[in-house]
């Protein structure tokens, strides 16, 4: 009897198992077609091997693109919101768990209209007129993928060229017709005689250097010498490089500004219809290269080094503080009065794994270090008395609203500006450094906003906010009525890569231009699986012209091939930029900036910290650079603190060897 | 006849081979666990052979060499083919990664919410449920993300409490339990309906309770209560229990909750949906796990650097086990219910550590150092 019962039990288990294996999830339709705005009940059932529906099964429906096709969880009600093809996954939980999918094609709405864009009031014979066509469907979606057929009623007056360009040939009238899917839009064009008899073209310089900006002034005049103010003038250039191994290249803007990359002779052209003028300019070698010499090193090779700050102490000597990364929460203090003999003089260890940032007050008495990885997860910052850096003493710890970790800080006029969990920054009054108190905060309200860094200069906070770009915030300058307690944002600039990691302002006194240089941080090459090989970064520096605060414009950039930007500093028209595996790059940013600064030969010098005894040997990964009293100090992730010195400027016509 | 003899000898040989195989398997059992190093951006695959724990492989995780991305929650797919990892520190949102257990290489990823933490795949739905801890955000309710791990698409977010953490799914895969660390609540989510089905305030706070105006508070023991700090914007509630983990028992219809703030394990009866027992523990219990045989509950005591083992039938704690370092974090128990694997964070520059504890003997039997701040931990397999 016992054996029989066991047999029955095993048999029932087997049958159950077999039944489970025979179940399948059937969808009513594997392919469903919908219209935008339509709601459809999607259906699925679990059936056994005989096709019989199994009751009491739950279903989960979801769309792989819920912003285009919304599907309500267990009910399977789908609503189409945007054209395209999407998958709906159907899951029936339980044992066995079953899955299937339904392909939903949401039909695009019919085309509703075509827009020609802005058309100039006067259309002169002999010019080209590019159209900016916009196709919109009845659901309100723009349809850039659709090709519009353009025709002209009079090809002798206006001809159609590829890429939606109109060739304006001669005086007369023409009707341009745009057709797509039975929708027709027309544009009447009245071509008038081109009154431009000639173009008077001038350049502000005939001879300059590569990277210098030649500003063109083009005056279109009629046969009576009257200016035609709305003449659509196009600028272009041709050139011949002095070096046969270098291609002539450069940049010319639609406003008529030109900068040469390679030294050479360049012909700058201005055209409007049949009228044309040109000027020839010469771009000489920039010739600003200088020798750079390694001076000293304060080695840190048992842990990673992060940021640095160099300052003149209250005793008149020079000091530096460096942080450490992914280690034991130590900050090191150095005497750098003799840059060739950098001396470790003290250290402070706090409950953290990373001291990412270090800053010192303007009077050299108070340092602030950031904390990440505290054992109690209350990170925040630590305020240190550095009036005697040989005996740095912790004054206070502060973690209110900063528990998520402080990645970067800045000290400005008795206030610390501290990032909180990568979301915002607080302004913290440290007039009494033993009792810091939050007085204000700044946070964006954009979806998914984040922040990486904040830098203060002249009462303006420049925060780097990744995809939200740089934010200029008045924290005491007065430009927008802001104070530390009431930060007021007044300008911003974002760029498509979303990699904005650091920012530094720079005003060129000679040109009056106000730039903010924005640095990327990117690591597209991934990590070494073993974590002990040299790293490689990407990203570069973007030069934004903020002279017109309401209309900031990206005008130039500085790249180092196969390396990536990190922290940087500007002093006396020279940019000192850490480029991780590319070391320190010293760049001439004098004058107006336009185009590719590296190709223009603006790099003065570079130095790469290679240390065979480094934390990772011979693996430069430079974090930051700071000029101080004629030397360049820089911290390196794998090797600690370094100093270098630029050789003096070599007078023209003097060989480098002679300048030693 | 010869054939018969050969066949008989062959059968004997097969039997002998089987016996050897079984005896070898019984004596040489290897256990594998994955452990995250939150301040090193590493995951360690650790083998324990019954005597010694060794790091088999260290897997670098994340994509930013110069930023700590904080690997936090980790779990294995029900079929053992994949492991899932939440990287908590994003810009601002964290990311869930899917790795192959065969190659330990990334096979997919998806962005989740703020500070994604503990996670698990339901064997009923095949979907992954991950709490968005939002550890350092404002004191507002956060969510549990529901992810299809086949497609690596986030398909829903279910709002729960303030700082949701410590989530585990019932043995049948039908219910997900998590706690709101600062709101002091236990949440039950139906994995199939993707909705909160029940919530329980663990501080004893009644829902929708009117303001306490006019009451005499002078004789109250405020240390046993959650605290609501009123601001102009909203009341900020700080749970006294401060629950940090919830683990459903495989068979007895109970969920056990680590009361990190009240130094106790709370036993919640799922049928009654009320607290039915309290086990006074060491300081600041943080994570807990129940042995697959249902006999023991093992809890990490973060505040005292100890591990507590509770005999659930007797309701008694075995002698506490001192961990190798301070800041005891996570626990995961082997499928044979013999060993508890404990992650220990350490402080500052100290390495993280995995401790192996023999549950019945309540004794640490092995230990191995790994990357800093060992945290998330999951038992993978025995072989």
From TrEMBL, chain A:
The keyword tRNA processing appears for this protein: no
Domain of life of the source: Bacteria
Signal peptide (residue range): 1-20
Gene3D superfamilies: 2.60.40.1080, YVTN repeat-like/Quinoprotein amine dehydrogenase
UniProt keyword annotations, A-Z: Signal
Record protein name field: BIG2 domain-containing protein
Species this chain originates from: Algoriphagus aquimarinus
TrEMBL record, chain B:
Keywords, in A-Z order: Signal
Keyword Chloroplast: no
Keyword Ribonucleoprotein: no
Signal peptide start and end residues: 1-28
UniProt cross-references to SUPFAM superfamilies, sorted A to Z: Nitrous oxide reductase, N-terminal domain
Gene3D superfamilies: YVTN repeat-like/Quinoprotein amine dehydrogenase
InterPro entries associated with the record: Host-pathogen_enzymatic-act, N2O_reductase_N, WD40/YVTN_repeat-like_dom_sf
Origin: domain of life: Bacteria
Record's protein name: YncE family protein
Originating organism: Algoriphagus aquimarinus
Lineage: Bacteria, Pseudomonadati, Bacteroidota, Cytophagia, Cytophagales
